[in-house]
Amino acid sequence: MSASAATASHPTNAPSGSPARRWWVLVVLAMTQLIVVLDGTIVNIALPAAQQELELSDTQRQWVVTAYALAFGALLLLGGRIADYWGRKRTYLVGMVGFGAASAFGGFAQSGTELIIARGLQGVFAALMAPAALALLTVTFSHGRDRNTAFAVFGTVAGAGAAVGLILGGVLTEFVDWRWCLLVNVPFVIVGLIAGLILVTESKAEGDNRYDWLGAITVILGLGSLVYGFTLAEGGWGSADTIGFLALGAGLLSLFVVIEMRVAQPLLPLRIVADRVRGGAFLMQMIVGSVMIGALLYLTFHLQIVLGFPPLEAGIATLPMTVAIMIVAPIATKLLPAIGPRPLLIVGPLIAAAALVYLSRITADGDYFVQVLPALLVLGIGMAMIFVPMQNLALTGVAPHDAGAASATANASMQIGGSIGLSVFTTVYASVTDQATVTDQASQLVAFTQGYSAAFIAAAVGLVIASVIAIVCIRGRKEDLLPSGDQQAVHLG
């Protein structure tokens, strides 16, 4: 899930060379995208084993996922600017080194705190590495059919990364050790570094480029306070700490808006989010991120902890949703120019919400093929109907010099939505399980299942809200809503 302001600038020293060399650059950059997306899900399958070995609390378990998504999402805008201003190759290489070091640190973590810190550092360096990779791809394939092919490959890798993460996480956890879900990044990083040094040419934006450091610091602290406040809500929404951090986060984000209105080169030009259609798409991406990152984590817990699936089987058991997305996405792509994005964005969330409601009917002694599989297939159908138009709308009508910031905002919305959603779902889960009467292992599994069910219902409510957002915000003629020709912007994630 990556973005950059690369499309927003005129590159200098753009990568050049033989056509064969350009395709090798694509292979390297696509591998980078795979690592970034894969790491958002690979630890999901490993978490039960890691929790048991490191004696993590449920809150710490949540933060193993949240730390990566939050750091990644909060720093994406700044990462894109650093890549453009400092140099895309340089930023890419530094991001790779840092990501590899953070992965190694996490693989040898001896406590929950160390693991959470490692995941946060992974997110920090992913926010450098991912935007730089997309920026390099943009200047390497600047136009024509080769550009379309390159971005199609890059997007396919991004879409498959989450599924690969679940499967690979299952294989490594079951047959090697959960720590290899982090250590596996190291050989990829080494290959990426060597290939990047040999194949990639430096490029950067021209002109007087100034960093909006005040805006960057404000938005990072604001998002961090907001997510942490939601995490504290597990202990009660009325506590002083919960209210304080939520208020602090809201205040800092309001200050960020004021700063962006006044600085000459804002981190996020407000005209990007002020547009009703794009703003609606960003809000929907936050909700979709909460479902894909937050709610589905509890599905992997149900499969392993309650149904007793080994890690590999748990990873494979989630594949039907991915298969459904891959089958329906091309159909939705063909429907898009015919009916426009609005019907898909209204109906898609409702279909996905219905799937989550069905999934909430799980029981501790239930059958996967009856209670889970149908829901995953329907959820995949609904998500495919959302993904296709939502990605296009995120950049529709964006001026070329704003395309990078808009793409970063879209990706950041997904990651931050996942962080906040996971915090909310954890609070809902904890409020249900804390009230359950647990006398033995069987009653404990029942309590877990009730908590997971409540989280699925909360996610379904979010998707219904997404449908309402589409009704209110996604308005206009389909010809105006869909980019065409040379104006079409690219968003991957």
From TrEMBL:
Keywords: Cell membrane, Membrane, Transmembrane, Transmembrane helix, Transport. Residues 25-478 form the Major facilitator superfamily (MFS) profile domain. PROSITE patterns: MFS, SUGAR_TRANSPORT_1. GO terms for cellular component: plasma membrane. It comes from the Bacteria. Signal peptide: none annotated. Pfam families: MFS_1. Its main location: membrane. This is EmrB/QacA subfamily drug resistance transporter.
